[in-house]
Design goal:
The radius of gyration is 17 Å and the shape is globular. It is an alpha/beta fold. The chain contains three helices and eight strands; from the N terminus they run E-H-E-E-E-E-H-E-E-E-H. Helix content is 23%, strand content 30%. The chain has a single domain, classed as Roll (2,3-Dihydroxybiphenyl 1,2-Dioxygenase, domain 1). A hairpin with a 2-residue loop joins strand 2 and strand 3. The protein has a four-stranded mixed sheet, covered by helices on one side. Strands 5-8-7-6 form a four-stranded mixed sheet, with helices on one face.
Length: 136
């Protein structure tokens, strides 16, 4: 059955502008580009940019990328140098920065993972939080 995330496709209004953002600002590796799209990769993540009319919602839906511990200041400076807009302040475990891509897609760079998040939640659970056993 399902074994993990396969790829992420984002609707973009300008392929080249988005290609430049993900490659030059965030460090994705360009893999292929055509008139209406592009493929990039970051580690095992396959990102597809597809020319379309992005419809950005006002909810909390966002895409988070792992950032090496100790690299947050450098990453924030990089975002600032490109004039990247932050859309939310971090209020949870782990160092994070929430920012927008050129089409307003909500992104996050986060130091930490599910294990550190669950450990913090066990220390201070959110309202109604239940923990489940893993792999049993």
């Amino acid at each position: 059955m399902l074994t993990g995330m396969n790829h992420l496709t984002l609707a973009v209004s300008q392929v080249q502008r988005s290609m430049d953002f993900y490659a030059l600002v965030l460090g994705f590796a360009p893999r292929a580009q055509w008139a209406r799209g592009a493929y990039l990769s970051l580690g095992d993540l396959w990102l597809c940019l597809s020319l379309d009319k992005p419809e950005i919602s006002s909810d909390y839906t966002h895409y988070a990328f792992t950032l090496e511990p100790g690299k947050m200041a450098e990453f924030r400076a990089r975002l600032g140098a490109f004039g990247i807009v932050e859309w939310k302040q971090n209020r949870s475990e782990g160092d994070s920065v929430y920012f927008l891509d050129p089409d307003g897609h909500k992104l996050e760079a986060h130091c930490g993972g599910l294990s550190s998040r669950l450990a913090a939640c066990r220390e201070a659970p959110w309202e109604g939080m239940v923990f489940y056993p893993h792999g049993e």
